[in-house]
Each structure stands twice: as structure tokens, then as C-alpha cells.
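Spend some time on this chain, C-alpha cells included, and walk me through the fold:

. . .
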Amino acid sequence: MLTARTIHAPRRRGQPSLPRTAAPRQRPATEPRDPNGVYPATRPELMPIALAAVILAFLALLVCASRGWLLLYGDAVAHLGIARRIVDSRYPGLAQLGGVWLPLPHLLMLPFAQRLDWWQNGMAGAWPSLAAYVLGVTGCYALCRKLVPFAWAFAGTAFFALNPNLLYLSTTAMTEPLFLALLLWSTVVAWEAVEALQTGKIATARTRLLVSGLLTMAMVFTRYDGWIVGATVWLLLALAWWRSVETTKQATGNAFLGMTLLAVAGPLLWFAYNAKYQGDWLDFLRGPYSAKAIEEKTTPPGSLPRRGMYNPGWAFLYFTRAAQVDAVAYELGFGVLATSLAGAWLMALTRLPRVVAVLLWLPLPFYVYSVAWGHIPIFVPQLYPGSYYNARYGMELLPAFAVCTAVACAAAERWLRAQKPKLADAFFFVTLVCIIVNVFAMMGTFGTLLQKVRGEDAWSTKVPRWLSAPPLVYDEAVVNSRTRIPFELALSKEILRLYGGGTIMFDTNEHIGAIQDAGLPLKTLISPLDSQSFDRARQQPARYADLVIALEGDPVAQAVAAHPEGLTEIEVLCHTGQPCAKLYRSSAHTGSL
């Protein structure tokens, strides 16, 4: 029997040998995807979405940083202060995380907040929020792609990604971008876990269960609405695991146990932290800086209960109105709300999309309860009393609006294609145009153009406010910073002028921005946040501090009133809408803490 063999020509001396090449691998043939089909997004498909999100994020950062908008929110300043004092304080360490705001955002800012200029200009909070924005946009697309064809997944993601309020928050130290990213990816992973458990894909089910536990822990450590979302995710996965076949249940038992331990560990660790460092395991609910204490402090004695308190109907109205104005311009929010509810109803008709609808709409009952009974007021200028407070909380429904509206629009296009194909072809492009127009409308572009056409100045009252108003979340930040920022800048200048080294006694709970603007190390301060040193210093302020700064009614002012010996008042600084600050020089500073 003859066999064929290859005869190689003899190689000359000095001639390099040719490498042997293996036969090229042949990839298994795959059926081409239907362009109008619904498929899970692949990694190569997610890359352009992530790249576009990175570009948008940096454009937003360029605009907001160049205009000094990163620190308009007082909460953003406070978040950065917490991250900074973990390392830079009289008693550095995890005890500086506080007991009300959850710790994950501060831990993510920690590496950046140690750079002084980034702490002062707010860039330390921008980097984690920008990363969260990119993750949130890719998570929105991944979720939409499992529900609708590519075109509508793109439209839903564009509606989410181009939202001016989200873009602004993504340049600040606020927690909303991080939570929205965790909510979207938790929903994606929960869907994949349920799907894997039903189809018996053991390896996928194990991975998704563990990842779901990690995402739940991250949500629990980010915002309190994450506690409710995490508990619901665990309940849905526990039900899917229990209903799976016995072999799948046994093979994934350890992964389910790991997910359960991760989900439970978050609240338990927070309870333990509050018990150890705050002296009350429920300090975040009933402590001096809880939402209940803040509302009681800011409510005038004898005043009537605000609208929404103990009234879930009004609470529903205030939250949904905030969500509408956060998402779209003018009165179009009513249409978006109705369309997204229709999409949620369509999703509820199928088992797995039903899971998505439940998770995305969970912020609605949570905030209705919080406004009615949880001491969390929400005010928007469109409703009485016409003011701004916590309007950004409506951003929690933006993923539901984006995803569910995409589902409703995809269903409408299918119906149009069956009835009137010509209208179906135009429907998608009209939707994209509406998304772009909405972005410019939310930024007040059309009001600005009208002012220019009329030859009016930029703040003319002849153009309706609803036509020229900036995005609600940004507008809220501007309105609530108009008196705080000038006061803190003036106070920081006085501190730098009078400070000659040594120790400053100052309550940083309300106006840490003054120290931030001055660029002084936090370890030079004696503050109520460091209770060990402050409890001793309040008995003898002049002995332990060179410079004492007392704001009306704060603990430092109370200590000065009780023990004024050795203190000389050298400056009084007052500003509209802010408490007066009295600065004292000590003539008896002899001790150190």
C-alpha cells in the first residue's frame, strides 16, 4: 500500500529554516443573525457602545469642569469630604466613613480624593461617576438587546445616555450614576441567572449567581433603595433555583449559598459598623444625621405637614413628576410615563421580561413609601410649593423609562409594519429625531434661540421659564448653591487670612467646603466628627484650639457660649441664607489633643 508524503527540497547551509505552520483552524459555521431579531449583546457589540459612552462622558466633564459645576451640590462636597478624611483627619480610618451615607461611593473616591487639587476642584468625585456612567450605558444596551431588535436597543440606550441630567451627575461626586449602573447590570445578570437555571446551564448559572451576590452587596453599600432591589433579586433567584430540576439544584447549591451570604452580608456589616462606631445599630434611621432628624430640624414649629407626608397619593405624584421632568422636557413626561407603563405591561406578559419590569420599577414603591413615611421630601418647581429639593431622586426611574419605552415602541413598529409598512419605516427615524430634540429642549436651547431672535438678554422674563429652563437636576444644584458657595468662599478667605498654623475648632458637618476651598489638611481640625477630641475640647475651647469658628447654633457655638474664657472674637461673617460665622482667637492655647 502506497502512502503519499511530502518531499522537501534540501536546505542550503546558512539558509534559515522555514517555520512549520499548522493547518488553520476552521471556526464552526454559524447561522447569520436576523437583523430584526432579538439576541443577547455580544462583547464586540458592546465595545462601540462603551466607546461612545466614554466620549460623551469626557465631553460632559469638559463642559462641567470648565464652568466650575462639579461642586454645585452640597452633598457632592460632603461626599468628597468623607472620602478625604478617611486618610486625612485627626483619627484616620474606617470610622470616618460616617453612619448615614453608605460607604461604597466614598471608598471609590478615596484614591482620588487624596490628591489635594482634585479634592478642591471636584475631579476626585468625577472619575468614579464617569466610569459608572459608561457601565450604566453599556448595561442599558445589554438589557435592551435582550428585549428588542438592534435599532430599538440603540434608541433606548440613546435616550438613557443622552439625558442631560445623567450627564451632569456623571461629572459629580453624587451616587446616582453608580446606583443606576448597578441596577441595570443586576437586572441583566438576574435575567441570565434565571435563564441558565431554567435551561440547565450549570456553569453559567453558578457564575451569574455569584456575580448577582456581588452586585447586590455593591447596591446595598451604595444607596438604601439598593436594599430593596437586592432583596427582590435574591427572592427571584431563590424562586428560580427552587423550581429548577434536581440535578441543576444540586450542582448550583454552593453558588446559591454564596449568593445568599453575599446578599445578607451587606446589611449585617452596616448594622455592625453603626453599632461599633455610632453606638446604635440603627443610627442611619434614627440618629442625629438621619433623614428623620434632618426633616424635624428643618421643619418650622407648628407648621402643617408637607404634601406627601402620610399620603401615598401625593407621594406618588411628587415622585413621578420629578421622574418625568428628569427624563424629558416640558409636559412630554406624561407621554413617556404612559408609554413606559405600556411597555412594562407588555413585558409582564412573558416570564423573563416580567423579572426585568419588576426590578426596573422597584424605585417607584420605594420612593412613594420614603416620601410618605420615610421623611424624604421631594419638591419640584412644577408642583407646590414650587421649590427644589431631592428632585434628582426621580432619576431612579430613568432606566425603566428607557427600557420599557423601547419595548413599547418596538411593539408599535411591529403593528405598523403589519398594517402600514411605509409608516413603520419612518417611525424609527422620527423617534430618533424626538430623542435629539428632547436633549436640546431639556437644555433650554430653544428658549435661548428665541431670545436671540427677539434680541433679548439671556435672562429676559419675556421668554417662558418652561421653554428656557436648564435641566432640572442641574437647576436644583444651582439654586441650592447660590448662598452656600459664596459663603464658603468668603469663610475660606478669612480662615487663610487669620490662620497662623496650629489647630482649628470647626464643625465640618455643614460647611466642609470652606476648608476644602482653603486647602487645609483636615487633621488640623477639631470637629464633632472626631468625637474623642471634640468632647474634651468643648470643655476648654481656648486651651485646645488656636482658631475657633462657630456657626450659629452648631456644637462649636454651644461650646463657646458655655466656655468663652480665653477667646477673643476677631471677625463676624454673615451671608444671606446662611448662618453667621464668628471667628475667635485663643489667648490660652497650651494643650494638644
